[in-house]
Amino acid sequence: MIHMLNAAADRVKWTRSRAAKRAACVVAAAYALKTLYPIIGKHLKQSGHREKKGAYPAAENREILHCTEATCKKPSPGVNADFFKQLLELRKILFPKLVTTETGWLCLHSVALISRTFLSIYVAGLDGKIVKSIVEKKPRTFIIKLIKWLMIAIPATFVNSAIRYLEGKLALAFRTRLVDHAYETYFANQTYYKVINMDGRLANPDQSLTEDIMMFAQSVAHLYSNLTKPILDVILTSYTLIQTATSRGASPIGPTVLAGLVVYATAKVLKACSPKFGKLVAEEAHRKGYLRYVHSRIIANVEEIAFYRGHKVEEGMHLLITGPNGCGKSSLFRILSGLWPVYEGVLYKPPPQHMFYIPQRPYMSLGSLRDQVIYPDSVDDMHDKGYTDHDLDCILHSVHLYHIVQREGASS
């Protein structure tokens, strides 16, 4: 590698360090192209697939889509293109106009963050001067610098407290906007009824309208602080280091490229090794919402539960499904019997030979009373299974319908 750099430097009349820097830039560009090209191609392919899917909907082609675990798997939560797209849509709610209360709090918060960054740089330089005065054994200079350091701590403390205070005010302003918009949408056009009784995508609306909005508003405000200040710190610190290196006659290009590569490689390694925190947070929110929903049901039905003494329904026990008209009792059995398809989720049920469904409207087949009792089997099927008319008489005795046999006869 060294011989190649020397040969390239001699051919184009570059110095060895200059050739090494350009080679490092070429390697970094090639690695970036190799890494980013599959990601860009994947996003382009996904956008083309979405456009094609929107142009030919299943409703127009009269296709029935059956959902399985593979086809109905929800996208994993994470910081991706969909996240930023949704964040841009929420920006219209958080900042409906250019001049708003939220914009004012955001500007004040930004000023506090910038002030904290400049204070950090000043304190870092002051620390270096204090150490220098100690090394050079200058007590008078050391005392002066130490007094300056103690005096700068007062505004630094005020700025730190102001950052936390403004972050809380910004989160409260975001929460107010989101809650107003969410409740306005929730109570418009009877959406509250449709969400509870006609749409199962939002299982816990009370959790989403209260706890989730509060956590989201706090996270957005905290995210702005955690992104803005480190970016400013990196920019200003890099600028200061570059100026220092230039003043001493050193070239800052090589170290800057090397530091950028180290940061990029570290980020890739952390991303590959870290668990999917977005999925974990979403699962935590879902479980907390479900727990809250179960507790609300206990509060609403506390008297009935007390009468039943917390009756348990375990696997294998009989279960009576009740409810008002239109709540989905018949729909459940239509899905279990296969009359309706499963559009979402996975359904587990016993084999058909282990279950028998009785419809709401009785069906009377053409034939005798015997044919009505043994339906859907025929007389031959009944004999093949080892049953006789005596067994049918016993069944009719059990259900108190034997008087029909006495009145009409089994063959009538």
From TrEMBL:
<protein>
    <submittedName>
        <fullName>ATP binding cassette subfamily D member 2</fullName>
    </submittedName>
</protein>
<keyword id="KW-0812">Transmembrane</keyword>
<keyword id="KW-1133">Transmembrane helix</keyword>
<dbReference type="GO" id="GO:0015910">
    <property type="term" value="P:long-chain fatty acid import into peroxisome"/>
</dbReference>
<dbReference type="GO" id="GO:0005524">
    <property type="term" value="F:ATP binding"/>
</dbReference>
<keyword id="KW-0813">Transport</keyword>
<dbReference type="GO" id="GO:0007031">
    <property type="term" value="P:peroxisome organization"/>
</dbReference>
<dbReference type="GO" id="GO:0140359">
    <property type="term" value="F:ABC-type transporter activity"/>
</dbReference>
<dbReference type="GO" id="GO:0016887">
    <property type="term" value="F:ATP hydrolysis activity"/>
</dbReference>
<feature type="domain" description="ABC transmembrane type-1">
    <location>
        <begin position="90"/>
        <end position="316"/>
    </location>
</feature>
<dbReference type="GO" id="GO:0005324">
    <property type="term" value="F:long-chain fatty acid transmembrane transporter activity"/>
</dbReference>
<keyword id="KW-0472">Membrane</keyword>
<dbReference type="InterPro" id="IPR011527">
    <property type="entry name" value="ABC1_TM_dom"/>
</dbReference>
<dbReference type="GO" id="GO:0042760">
    <property type="term" value="P:very long-chain fatty acid catabolic process"/>
</dbReference>
<dbReference type="InterPro" id="IPR027417">
    <property type="entry name" value="P-loop_NTPase"/>
</dbReference>
<dbReference type="Pfam" id="PF06472">
    <property type="entry name" value="ABC_membrane_2"/>
</dbReference>
<dbReference type="GO" id="GO:0006635">
    <property type="term" value="P:fatty acid beta-oxidation"/>
</dbReference>
<dbReference type="InterPro" id="IPR050835">
    <property type="entry name" value="ABC_transporter_sub-D"/>
</dbReference>
<dbReference type="GO" id="GO:0005778">
    <property type="term" value="C:peroxisomal membrane"/>
</dbReference>
